[in-house]
Structures are given as structure tokens and as C-alpha cells.
């Protein structure tokens, strides 16, 4: 996914300048970006989210046991195509446990209340 983000930034001078300006302001020239910095890097976070939206990650997984996802029963051994972007946002009132069947979320998971 990082390759897509860099490609998008390289194709947009305005976006690249905005990211560079934000990084320089928040971290300076001698720091590396760490996960905990993202909460303060609003523009970079938006670039990452937009990259995930534009370059949808479809992931194939095989159910390792029969399970129920919503109202659907998924038999053991069934190959499922998962929309990586849609799996990022899951209401906490739903069963977030179903994610264990689909261990790859390319951009991390955001559970909402």
C-alpha cells in the first residue's frame, strides 16, 4: 500500500508539498514517522485513507472452520473475497470477532462505537 501512496503523492505536487509541510512542522527534518505520530499528522492520515479507498485491497481467505458472518453461514474450506477497505470500519456493536477469519487488514482496523 505504501507504494500506491507514494505513487499518488508523486503525481500531485500540491499533495506532496502539503505532506512535506506537515511532516516538517510536526516532526522536523531529522525524525522518522512512527505509528503514534499519525494521530497528529492529519493530512498524512487522510492521504493513507484515500490511498486505501482508491486502491481497494481485495484479499482472498479460506474459512478454517464453519462460521456465521452476519446472516450468512460460511462453510469450512470456503474461499471468501474480502474487501479490505470495508473491513476497516466495523461497528463495535457487531461481532468484531469475525475478523479473526480474515487476518489481513492492509490499513489497520477502525472500530467505531
UniProtKB/TrEMBL annotation:
SUPFAM superfamilies named in the record: Cytochrome P450
Pfam families linked to this entry: p450
InterPro entries, A to Z: Cyt_P450, Cyt_P450_sf
A GO MF term: iron ion binding
Official protein name in the record: Cytochrome P450
Amino acid at each position: 500500500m505504501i507504494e500506491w501512496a507514494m505513487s499518488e503523492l508523486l503525481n500531485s505536487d500540491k499533495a506532496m508539498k502539503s505532506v512535506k509541510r506537515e511532516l516538517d512542522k510536526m516532526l522536523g527534518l531529522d525524525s522518522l514517522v512512527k505509528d503514534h505520530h499519525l494521530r497528529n499528522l492529519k493530512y498524512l492520515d487522510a492521504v493513507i485513507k484515500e490511498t486505501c479507498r482508491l486502491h481497494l485491497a481485495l484479499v482472498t481467505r479460506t474459512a478454517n472452520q464453519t462460521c456465521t458472518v452476519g446472516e450468512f453461514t460460511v462453510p469450512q474450506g470456503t474461499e471468501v473475497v474480502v474487501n479490505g477497505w470495508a473491513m476497516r470500519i466495523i461497528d463495535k456493536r457487531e461481532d468484531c470477532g469475525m475478523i479473526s477469519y480474515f487476518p489481513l487488514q492492509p490499513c489497520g482496523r477502525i472500530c467505531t462505537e
